[in-house]
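User: Sequence in, structure out. Go.
Assistant: Echoing your sequence, followed by the structure tokens.
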Amino acid sequence: MAEGRGQTLTGRILVAEDNPTNQLIVASLLRRAGHAVEVAGDGAEAVSLLLGNGADLVLMDVQMPGMDGFAAAQAIRALGDPWAHVPIVALTADTLPETREACRAAGMDDHLGKPVNPAALLAVVERWLSPSGGAEEEGRTGAPPPLDSAILDQATASLPDAERRMIIDSFLGDLDRRLLRLEALSEGGDPRRLAAEAHDLASLAGSFGGTAVMRIATRIEIACRGGEDAQALALLPGLVAEAKRLREAFR
């Protein structure tokens, strides 16, 4: 977590970069400066890691196979709080004005040229970890709890323990089956099926306190029904990751 004023600013940084050598260079520089670093090899993995673990800052390569940096930034901004406000810095060798504008249009906050200059890297990280740069209050960009226990308790408080356990076990079995179907749909499928699965999962998870799953699933359903198939698929890895977090929270 970013430290306070008067101290060296350190934080949790997510690096999305497909080139293994560039991954090592950037991660090593950041770790030597005291930052905690996670590395994603593409945009979909970056969205999933951010949902699962949170971050104070994302360094996003623009050109990556599969989901590129533009699509990943758009997916992150579509997630809602707290992820939507994490600072995203584009990493790209293309410094043309139109590329910078495209990065900003996709939801990125800043731009860092490649090959990465160590001093410039640390300077941009310092800027965005400072309170004036965007990473404001402590804990703001961390991942929220996967389970809202208050909702679960309210739904099951009047039930005997054995019946409560039976209902929860039924929910978890249903969740496991839906996870398998969602993972299959992530490889491509009928958007109408994805919308229906997302709708059912949002309702189911919300009833059991899985508010984060409910929020992402609802966004996927809206995207599918609005013809935004690419955005729906971009959000799908994050939904699967969040559903798995919810599954673990019941253990």
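User: And one key feature?
Assistant: The first helix runs from residue 20 to 32.
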